[in-house]
Amino acid sequence: MSYDFKIFNSNIVYRHESGVKQTSERAIEFAKALSGGDPSKAALLKDAIEKGYKAAEKAWGGELPEICKQTQEATLKGLDDWANKAN
């Protein structure tokens, strides 16, 4: 069986429930819940996400796939937006 990986990857990134937008939104909501809804904890949450990303790279054995980087960036931006909205 053969498939076009670019098309497959594009569908995952933009349309699927495991896409960047959908996954980052779930991660942001989870982080907000962990903080008790306190935007002043955004920096702490972002630090934990960055540490987790580095741990995942170590477990992976190197650089993670691009979709992971995009999801991390979107999650961190979402937390920044949330914190900035509160100020």
What profile does the largest beta sheet have?
none
**Rounded radius of gyration (Å):** 15 Å
Structural class: mainly alpha
- Helix coverage percent of residues? over 70%
Mean pLDDT: 86
Q: What sort of overall outline do the alpha carbons produce when their principal axes are compared?
A: globular
Write down how many β-strands occur, each being a DSSP E stretch of 2 or more residues: 0
Q: Give the CA-CA distance, first to last residue.
A: 53 Å
The figure for the number of domains is: 1
Question: Features of this protein?
Answer:
87 residues, mainly alpha, 4 helices
Question: How would you sum up this structure, described in words?
Answer:
The chain is mainly α. The chain has 4 helices and no strands. Helix 2 packs across helix 4 (66-86). The mean pLDDT is 86.
Structure described in brief:
This protein has helices spanning 5-14, 20-34, 42-60, 66-86. It is mostly helical and 87 residues long. The protein has one domain.
What is the fold's blueprint, element by element?
Layout lengths: L4 H10 L5 H15 L7 H19 L5 H21 L1
Helix pairs in contact: 2-4, 3-4
